[in-house]
# Entry
Amino acid sequence: MTSNWSPSSWREKPIAQDVVYEDQQDLEKQIDRLRAQLADVAQGKAFLLQGGDCAELFSACSQDPIEHKLSLILLMSLIILHGSRLPVIRIARIAGQYAKPRSKPTEVVDYPLDGEAGQQGKTEKREVMSFRGDNVNGFEVTDRRADPERLLSAYFHSSATLNYIRALLSSGFADLNAPRQWSFSHVRSPSLQKAFEEVIDSLMDSLDFMRVAAGGAGAGKNEGSVARGGTETVDFYTSHEGLSLEYEEALTRAVQPLSAGNGFSSLARPARPSGASSSSRANSTVRGSSQLREEKLEQQQQQPQQKYYNLSSHFIWIGDRTRQLDGAHVEYFRGIQNPIGIKVGPTMKGDELVKMLDSTSDIERTVVVNPDNIPGKVTLISRYGADKVEKFLPAHIEAVKNSRHVVVWQCDAMHGNTKSSETDPSLKTRHFVDIISEISSSMKIHKELGTILGGVHLELTGEINEDGFSVTECIGGSMDLMDKDLSLNYLSHCDPRLNYEQSLDVAFLISDYLRA
Ligand code: PEP
Ligand code: MN
# Structure
């Protein structure tokens, strides 16, 4: 019998002729940089703007949808930067936001009948799996079976999207000297147009001033697509909910510090957290757990620590439905170097929140996500709803304040504010006033308690139809969309998103709050 062998036991040996992928190293550097920038956000030295679709579709992996998303977030960031005078960290829900948690696993739909009856448009009521996002099943009711092939497709679409974003950024798309190219022209509201023109004029003035002060036109040139400091392009990061752990694991890479002293080397192989090896699992039945813990500690002290990066995205978050302390998602998230988000809703207990970050007890230390209190590592994404924020946020802030933890506080003003449309109860909607109210209450509460609201998390889209009209999924804003307008251009396959104009409205309001 071949002892101590498993198909993956080769991973525990030194490897010759391993390939180090440059792209991979690039991504690791960007991930580390984002973490450092989020540490600034935690201290109020920068503002975090995160937004995008609720459910990104594979079909959105093409020029127009990507450009619309990028340009909207860029415009919003300019508006916020203008008012707050703070650097804005931009993270899109893009290039991997393909998996959705649902409140109900199944739903009853009108299912087309077989044969001729189906061709005549006849349907029957049938219970099918809910749409779980493009990397699980399809939106069409006839395509709801979970299909593992979709995971490969998710990888393809996410890489292609990421590559296109990189190409756009390096070709000058995000040049702060030319913000008018970010397709603002279709916005019909004269007051929004005027407000934006004022921001641009004032920004151009400042840029001119900087160029003169720096001594001429070429000054401040950037090095690459995600370089910071200059004005020709800006940082732009990607994110998604880390829901499908099979997908996340497959894209997790170990980076081993070489004791020989030539820095970090990327190993193109899946993560294998120390202690999870087949041999240690087998032994655990024989040896006591305290002995095991001691041995593990000893091993860790002897070996240089291997680091794991999730290279599917810069930032991933744990959803409100999957954040159980003893659950699989927290277990996965605790081992990666990426900055991570944790959704915090009304059902989160204060002590649970602190336990998730850190714990003083040795046993509990094994489940926490930030035992070393690394600045910028954890973003708490609060999402209670406009009518609940006053009730829940203060206690959560106090709980974290009483721990030694420094976190980024971010307000998701969408997920606690979902309602059914009055005219068509099958449509979900959100009211602009609720969204603004949750953001402003959060800012006020943080200020009163001496903490900082570092950013916002929004579901939004720059998508427009062939006639240049924005989507109609949320109610209110400067366009004054009403409940009865929702069906005009409702395109979301999941939650309702702020449209182009409503997103800019939110940006102006945040900009005003931060100026105050
Ligand atoms: C989401 O961000 O799309 C989402 C499902 O959020 P939550 O986990 O907060 O419900
Ligand atoms: Mn959503």
Remarks:
- The pocket of manganese (II) ion (ligand 2) is lined by residues 54, 415, 459, 494-495 (CB under 6 Å).
